[in-house]
Amino acid sequence: MRFTTLRQSLLLAPFALLVSGSSGATTIYDETIQADLSGDPNTYTKIQVQPGANTLILRTGPAETDVEDFFELVLGGLSILRIEILDFDPGANNPGGTRFGICQGPGDACFPSPFVEVLITPADIGTDLLAVFEAQAPGQVTNFFRAGESTGPSTTTLSIVATPEPSTWVLLGASLPMLSALRRWRGRPPTA
Asked: How close are the terminal C-alpha atoms of the chain, in Å?
C-alpha cells in the first residue's frame, strides 16, 4: 500500500507543480516601488520570471526623467505562454499611449526603434502581446523588451505567464521510473 501511495504521488507531482505555479500571481518587478528600469539600450535590467503568473508594473515618461525602459526576462528553463495587458493608465499628459516592443538584444538591434513594436492604449487591456508579436514576427520573438514614451507618466501592468519548458517535463518524466526502481530496490529484504 505504501508503494502505491508513493507511485501515485510521483505521478501527480507534475500536475501539482503546474497548479501551484499558476494559483497566484507573483509581482516580479514594480517600477512604482522598486528602482527605475534601465534607460540604456546597451544594459538591460534583468527580471527573473517564476513559474505561473507573474506581474510586471512599468512606469514610463515624462521625457525629462524616464523616456524608455529596457528589460530582459530571465526565463531559467521556462517558456512564456502569454504576456497580457492587465491594466494601463496613460497618465494626465499622455493621450497617445505607450510604445512596447521586442528587441533582438542589447545594443543597436533595439535602438532607436525596436524590432517589433505596438502602441498600448486603455482599449488594449486584456490583449496578449505575445500573440501580437508572434503574428508580426513569427518565430523571432525574444525575451528583450523596450517600453517608452515621452509624455506620461504612464503605468502599464502586465501579466507574464510562464511554464517549464517541455524538456523539463521530459526530464521529470524520465526520473520517475528511476525513483520507482530505487524504491523497489530499497524495499527488498537484505540477502544473507
From this structure: 26
The region, left, alpha or beta by phi > 0 then psi within -120 to 50, assigned to residue 104 is alpha
> 152-179 burial by CB neighbour count: b if 16+ within 10 A, else e?
bbbbbbbbbbbbbeeebeeeeeeeeeee
Report the 10 Å Cβ neighbour count for 136.
Answer: 15
Three-state DSSP class for residue 191: coil
SS3 assignment, position 24? coil
How many domains does the chain divide into? Answer: 1
pLDDT tens-digit map of 11-70: 444 444 444 444 467 888 998 888 888 888 888 899 999 998 999 998 887 765 677 888
**Looking at the domain assignment, is residue 188 inside a domain?**
no
Confidence band of 188 (pLDDT split at 50, 70, 90) = low
Domain annotation covers residue 32: yes
Q: Is the pLDDT of residue 99 over 50?
A: yes
Host domain of residue 144:
28-164
Q: Which pTM value belongs to this model?
A: 0.70
Residue 133 lies in a domain: yes
* Cβ pair 87, 158 in contact under 8 A: no
